[in-house]
Each structure stands twice: as structure tokens, then as C-alpha cells.
Amino acid sequence: MEGSSCKADSFSNVSLRPLDVSDIDDFMVWATDEKVTRFCTWEPYTNKEDGIKFITHYVIPHPWFRAICLDSKPIGSISVTPNSGNFRCRGELGYALAWKYWGKGIMTQAVKIVANTIFSEWPHLERLEALVDIENMGSQRVLEKAGFNREGTLRKYIFLKGRCRDLAIFSLLSTDPKE
Ligand SMILES: CC(C)(COP(=O)(O)OP(=O)(O)OC[C@H]1O[C@@H](n2cnc3c(N)ncnc32)[C@H](O)[C@@H]1OP(=O)(O)O)[C@@H](O)C(=O)NCCC(=O)NCCS
């Protein structure tokens, strides 16, 4: 984790917007970094073409995928993936931030923005949830700071990067207090 003298409680220049193919060079900064993908379900990207395919075929059609921007420059991403049928009341939160910007409160701010907008954008959504590797302390802390409830541990829940892992499950309900 990179040290920081400036926490982002004060960053008014953090914003969310759709990520587009024209953002490919910024996307490649975090998407190629093993430090960033360590706890993610995906492997680091190794070439621009695959990055462009991902943005074209996954990000753009995705119902809620946003670039996290600092002064309009994408430095990470955050998404809410919906469910359908009986599970449509819940959506799953995912996020990643370029390493250079870790430890400044930026993801906490981005998650709070999502928490404050997604339930009005999607009135059918009652629960926003996040599944986090038990060893990913920074991500668990982000969710706590953004007001999520830790509900427990899903033991040996996913096989990822060579071994089976325990995940912590967090949720925020539409009726929970928001900051
Ligand atoms: C996890 C991640 C999103 C955090 O983003 P960030 O902008 O650095 O988070 P914030 O600065 O808002 O908050 C991080 C908090 O975790 C704490 N933290 C970080 N690493 C920690 C560690 N190893 N142990 C304990 N606390 C830790 C920080 O001190 C801070 O808490 P504080 O404000 O109480 O001091 C970022 O590191 C990242 O993108 N990681 C790679 C992708 C990823 O893991 N995504 C999540 C998949 S579920």
C-alpha cells in the first residue's frame, strides 16, 4: 500500500463516468498491474488489443460500469452487476484502482458515490453486496468506511490464483443509512 499524506475526504475532483475505448491507455495502467489484480478474478492484461476487446464487449454493454476519474482522468473502475429473476433485488459491487492512487481514500469516496446513487437509479435494487478475499484488508476497510455491513465469511468459496479462498461478504441495503 502506497503511503499518503493526503486523504480524499477532501477530494472534490473524484467523479464517475462511463469508460470508453478512448480511455484504453489509462485503463491499461491499472489493468496490467499484478498488484491490482492480485485479489481479482481476472489476470493482468498483457496487450492493448485485449483491453479494447474488454471495453468494447464487456464494459460498454454493461448496465453499470464506470471509470473512477481524478480531474477527469480515469484511474480505476467501479461496477454494479445486476442479477435477474428471483435475484434481481441484489447487485454485486466490484472495483479496482491504479496502484499509484492507493491509500488516499479515493475508493471509499467512489463507493460512497455509488451507494448514494444506485438505489435511486435502480428502484428494484434492495441490496448491494460485495465479496472480498479475506486477505484483502484494504478492500474490507473501504466497505466498512462506506457503511457496509460485514455479514460473515464464505469459507473456501472460490478457486482463484492457484488456491481455494475464503471470502468476506458485505452488504448495504437500500434502507441502510448512507453517508
Ligand atoms: C482495495 C482498494 C480498492 C482500496 O482502494 P483505496 O483507494 O486505496 O482505499 P481507501 O484509501 O479509500 O481506504 C483503504 C483503507 O484500507 C486500509 N488498508 C489498506 N491496506 C491495509 C492492510 N494491509 N491492512 C489493514 N488496512 C489496510 C487503509 O489504511 C485505509 O483505511 P483507513 O482510511 O482507515 O486508514 C485498492 O487497493 C485496489 O484497487 N486494490 C486492487 C483491486 C482490488 O483488490 N479490488 C477489490 C476486489 S474485492
From TrEMBL:
<dbReference type="InterPro" id="IPR016181">
    <property type="entry name" value="Acyl_CoA_acyltransferase"/>
</dbReference>
<dbReference type="InterPro" id="IPR000182">
    <property type="entry name" value="GNAT_dom"/>
</dbReference>
<dbReference type="Pfam" id="PF13302">
    <property type="entry name" value="Acetyltransf_3"/>
</dbReference>
<feature type="domain" description="N-acetyltransferase">
    <location>
        <begin position="14"/>
        <end position="176"/>
    </location>
</feature>
<dbReference type="GO" id="GO:0016747">
    <property type="term" value="F:acyltransferase activity, transferring groups other than amino-acyl groups"/>
</dbReference>
<protein>
    <submittedName>
        <fullName>Acetyltransf_3 domain-containing protein</fullName>
    </submittedName>
</protein>
